[in-house]
């Protein structure tokens, strides 16, 4: 072999070995990068999964919680002998064919269906049942709404337990009703007074109601308008109401009246002069006098 050939062969061998090392290093870098990307992806997805689990464990994601006297229907699809319409008993249970007593109180329709499914499978009655539970009558959780609302009565807390939603379901406050609603708590008897107009505008925080709470809207406090106005009579007093406000509600001053000649009688006092910006109180009597010709 020629010396130069030997040098060339050795060079080729060295180049080949270097290529193998380089390729191995490249593969190592690629594998390492892929593994790092996978870990980074897992770490990115992990925080997204945690809140859902936390919400489920905390009970924030749930529906109406069953209680005594609720009426429910249980349907096992394709197995009519297991279908029942029943009322939750005072001890919180229902009775199902074959599997017997099942605790319903404290469960939602979903968790009760899961419990019935588990019992049917555990007892070897059915292999893979499909169970559905529906509430047909809500009787265990409600609030009482009384006074000057559109539809007074018992309002079940089957949807939202917020004050604003309950008032809307009750037909809202009637025109003759007070702007303020009183909530008496069932737990301790304490009373809370809330301005419904400010509540509707979002200027007052909405509150959660508890089963057994009582809501009452009293008759509105009135002021009385007499004399030369389009529609004399009593008008609900609103916070900050002035003489000008009540005259506007009454359709304005009549043809013979004068907006600058206003008398105000408050309590047992004699009538005194008032102007358009005089603030009114409950029971005030405003008299619009005739114009002087």
Keywords for this structure?
rod-shaped, Outer membrane lipoprotein wza fold like, wza like fold, alpha+beta, 293 residues, 26% strand, 15 strands, 5 helices, five-stranded mixed β-sheet, disordered N terminus, 4 domains
> Whole-Å distance between the termini?
141 Å
- Using the alpha-carbon principal axes, give the shape: rod-shaped
Helix content: 25-40%
Major sheet details: 5 strands, mixed
> What amount of the residues lies in strands?
25-35%
Radius of gyration: 38 Å
CATH topology of the largest domain: Outer membrane lipoprotein wza fold like
Describe, in plain words, how this protein is organized in 3D.
The chain is an alpha+beta fold and 293 residues long. The protein folds into four domains: 42 residues; 67 residues, wza like fold (2-Layer Sandwich); 76 residues, Outer membrane lipoprotein wza domain like (Outer membrane lipoprotein wza fold like, Roll); 69 residues, Outer membrane lipoprotein wza fold like (Roll). It is 31% helix and 26% strand. The chain has five helices and 15 strands. It has a five-stranded mixed beta sheet with strand order 7-6-10-8-9. β6 and β7 form a beta hairpin. It is rod-shaped, with a radius of gyration of 38 Å. The N and C termini lie far apart (141 Å).
